[in-house]
Each structure stands twice: as C-alpha cells, then as structure tokens.
Amino acid sequence: MTVPPRLRRALVRMRRDIAFIAAGMTLHLIPLLLHCWVVMLLLGTVLDPDPDTPVVLALTLPLLFVAGWGLTEPQRWRFRALCGVELPRLRFREIKRQFGYNLLIGPLLVVLELLLLALLLAAVAAALVLVWVWLVPWQWRRDHGGYVVPAGYLTVAGLLALAAVPPLAGGLVRLEILVGRAVLGVSRSDELARRVEDLTESRAGAVDAADAERRRIERDLHDGAQQRLVSLALNLGLAKATLTDLPPEAQQVIDAAHREAKDAIEELNNLVRGLHPAVLDELGLDAALSGLAARAPLPVRLRVDLPADLPQRTEPAVEAVAYFVVSEALTNIAKHAREATRAEVTVTRLGEILRVVIADDGMGGADPSGGSGLKGLAQRVRSVDGTFRMSSPVGGPTMMSVELPCPM
After folding, report:
1. Taking the CA atoms of the chain, what radius of gyration do you get in angstroms?
2. Which of 102, 201, 233, 302 could form a disulfide with 293 if both were Cys (CB 3.0 to 4.6 A apart)?
3. For 52, how many CA atoms within 13 A lie in the half-sphere containing its CB?
4. In this structure, what are the phi and psi dihedrals at residue 354, rounded to the nearest 5 degrees?
C-alpha cells in the first residue's frame, strides 16, 4: 500500500522535529545537570559544611564555562543538519550570547522538550494498550474481563495525544529556531557591519573595473585610432611637400585636410589623457601632475610631497582620482574662475591619507551644489571613501581640499 505524499511529508517532518527536539534535549540537559549539581553543592555547604565541598565546587565551575562556550558548535550543527538553519560562527568575544543561550535559555527549553517527549511516549503506550493486554497471559484476561472498556478509552486518548504531538513539536521547533536566531544569530549591528563591508568591497570592485575599462579604452585609442591619424597626417604632410605641381584648389584641400588631421590628433591626445594618462602608470602621480601643470593656461605652482620610504605606491584607483581631481579643478579655474592669475596645487601623503589641495586667486563664488562638474568631482572622491571640501567665498580665494584613504 502506497503512502499518500501529503502523509509521507507529514511523517518526515514529524521525524525531523522529534530528532531536533531529542538532540536539543541531550545538549540542554548537560548545563541543567551542572546547575543542579552546583545548587546541591551550595545547599550542602549551608546545611552540612564539608571541607571538600569548595574544592568540588571549584572544579565544577570550569565545567560550566566549557558547557557555556563549547556547546555552541553542537547547537549550530543541530540547527543546520536537522532544520537547515545556518547560524553564524560566533567569535570568542561574543561569549556572553553563547553563555546566555547554553546556560540560561537551554535549561528552560529542556523542560518543554522533556514534556513533549514524555507526551509522545505516553501517547504511544496508551495507543498500544490493547497490544500490551494481548501480551499478558490468557488466564489473566479471562479473570479480568472488564479491561476492554478502560483499554478502549486509553487507546482513544493515546491516539488523540499522538495527533497533538506533530503540531506541538512543530511549534516547539519554531520557538527554538526563533530563540536560536535571536541569541546565536547575527545581531543587528553585526549585520549592518557586514553589509557595509560587502557594499564597500562591491563598490571597490566597481571602481577597479571602471578604472580597468578606462585603461583598456586608452590603450585601444592609443594603439589604434591615434596611430591611424598620425599616419594620415604624415601622408598628408608628405603629399603637401612633394605634390607641388597640383592646382591651387587641390593644394588648399590637402592643406586643410592636414590641419584637420593634426587637430584631430591633438583632440584625441586630450581625450586619451582624460581617460587615463599613460604617464600616471609609468612614472607616477608626481610626473602626471607636472604634465598637467605645464599644459595649464595659467601659471600653476605644484608641490608634491610623497615620502620616498613608503613600502609601495599609492593604489592606482586613488592615484587616478587624485589626478582627475587636479585636472578638472585646473580646467574649472581656467574656464570659470574670474580674474584668476595663478593656481597652486599641493599633494601630500600623511600616513594613510593622501591630501590634495587646489587653490586659485580668483573672485570666488563657486558653489559645489550648483554645478555638475563639482558634483561629479565630489562623487568621484566619495567612490573611494574620500572626503571633499570646498571654500569659495565671494571675492576669493577659492580652495578645494580632497582627502583620499591610502591603506598601507
């Protein structure tokens, strides 16, 4: 006879719940027995003082410590193997939570577990009472003929109790899972800390991926389109120099095409530098910023103070952010800083902080909340957990300060 799927699932669930409760009763009985032993020792010390009692008590207390801490892993296994509930591996500094569950909550839960298992055993015994009667000698059954009605009542009561066991066991399992997650699970602060760590790692990965993509595009442009434009400009220059017998109109077309090719090369060079300057990878931040200062349309005083005894260079993503902050700031000064005659860029490394300060002597009035360029700079700085501050009172001067973390 095949068992209906619904009944089979109910039996499997009941067997799992009973196994979970029985395993919990075994683990919870250990601290309960230790508690009872300690109480008996204390009562014995009060009622009948014995010189050996303090020694026995001193030996028992370490057992409580071991039970409070060492039973956590078996509990984790019980939740994982029997209920599929994964509890985190608690560190030793969270021992208070482990003590609270194993030494305080466990002895309370074991009372419910014992009551449920006792109910199950009593229900099975009552439901099989007619079987027990059938096993006794026939002579006894003949002499005690009135056993049928009480045995029938006990059987019905046993069957009703058996029917009540599955929901009671399921409720107790849900209670234990709720308590286990609340006490041995991840606390709210730990969960938030782990989420922050995950978000920080994912954001760092996104920043690195974007930086790697910019490098790839820079290489492709440098090795592909830029080389083709250079070749085109050379060919046009050669044609302009050698084909002197062409009509004036043709000479003008070649000359115009030559100028357009050189202008395109210059624009492409600026685009490549804006994506990711090769000099930043090859020579470092100092050389890359020196190139920016030399190409700026106004005098720039640059001071880069990076200690030579650092074990390694600053992370590429942080160097790239510092470079683009200076590049965008100098571009904004040239375009928007009224009456600015000079700028000053200072880059210093103080421990695990790279500080970049850009100042100009313009008329000020720059508002970080009003322009997309400054907003973009601030967002780029925050992408590596940096801080962005700007001071630009009306009348000047304007100062932009950026601090970027550089973990050793």
Report:
1. 40
2. 302
3. 0
4. -105, 115
Rounded to whole angstroms, how far apart are CA atoms 280 and 277?
6
The DSSP result for 326-351, as a single string, is: HHHHHHHHHHH-TT---EEEEEEEET
DSSP code for 90: -
pLDDT in tens, 292-336: 888 888 888 999 887 766 656 777 778 888 888 888 888 888 777
Distance, CA of 399 to CA of 361 (rounded, Å) = 9
φ/ψ region of 312 (left if φ > 0, alpha if ψ in -120 to 50, else beta) reads beta
Q: Which of 273, 269, 392 is nearest to 328 (CA)?
A: 273
User: Which residues, at least 6 apart from 180, have a Cβ–Cβ distance to it below 8 Å?
Assistant: 75, 79, 85, 87, 101
CB-neighbour burial class of residue 119 (10 A; exposed 0-12, middle 13-18, buried 19+): middle
Q: pLDDT tens digit string along 109-164?
A: 999 999 999 999 999 988 888 777 776 665 655 555 556 677 788 888 999 999 99
pTM of structure: 0.52
Q: Is the separation of the CB atoms in 76 and 89 below 8 Å?
A: yes
Let me know how long the chain is.
Answer: 408
Strand (E) positions, 226-362?
300-305, 343-350, 353-360
Residue 380 has φ and ψ, to the nearest 5°, of -65, -40
Q: Which residue type sits at 188?
A: R
CB 90 within 8 A of CB 183: no
Looking at residue 247, the DSSP 8-state letter turns out to be -
Give the burial string for 352-391 (b: 16+ CB within 10 Å, else e). Answer: eebbbbbbbbbbbebeeeeeebbeebbebbeebebebebe
**CA–CA gap between residue 314 and residue 407 (Å, rounded):** 9
Buried b (16+ CB within 10 A) or exposed e, 6-15: eeeeeeeebe
Dihedral Cα 24, 29, 32, 34, nearest 10 deg: -130
Pairing of strands 300-305, 353-360: unpaired
